[in-house]
Design a protein that fits this description.
This protein is mainly beta. It has one domain: TolA/TonB C-terminal domain, CATH 3.30.2420. Helix content is 14%, strand content 44%. It is built from two helices and ten strands; from the N terminus they run E-E-E-E-H-E-E-H-E-E-E-E. The strands form three sheets. Strands 1, 2, 3, 5, 6 and 10 form a six-stranded antiparallel sheet that branches.
Length: 126
């Protein structure tokens, strides 16, 4: 089953971050467990602030990097790659580092956490 979820965003001093599911795949096997909330979307628990390299500041670089982040069923980052570049390898590297340093909660479907892939969008502004 593929489930499309709404995104979550937060604004930081030097960047804005959005978290948008690409796809969350769940097993069709049912479970008789009961829980308080059967279905919850994945979310950002802690958004690490991207560190813009000093040379990028000096050059007045700005842009938006979209990072594909793959989470396991525990919410741990098991993969991160540039999905759409800002046009600057320096900003892309900073976005990747921030994504890997962030903490996530996984999607829960029918009371069971599931793995998924999401877009983590970092916008660098001067």
């Amino acid at each position: 089953m593929t489930k499309l979820l709404t995104g979550l965003g937060c604004i930081l001093a030097a960047a804005s971050i959005q978290f948008t599911p690409l796809a969350a795949v769940a097993s069709d096997q049912g479970d008789s467990r009961s829980c308080a909330i059967a279905d919850t979307p994945a979310s950002v628990v802690f958004a690490a602030e991207p560190i813009m390299p000093e040379i990028a500041r000096d050059l007045w670089l700005s842009g938006t990097t979209q990072v594909r982040v793959d989470l396991d069923a525990a919410g741990a980052v098991i993969g991160a790659s540039v999905y759409r570049s800002s046009g600057s390898w320096m900003l892309d590297a900073a976005a990747l580092a921030a994504t890997r340093a962030s903490r996530f909660a996984p999607t829960v479907h029918e009371c069971a956490p599931i793995a998924g892939s999401y877009l983590y969008t970092v916008e660098f502004v001067q």
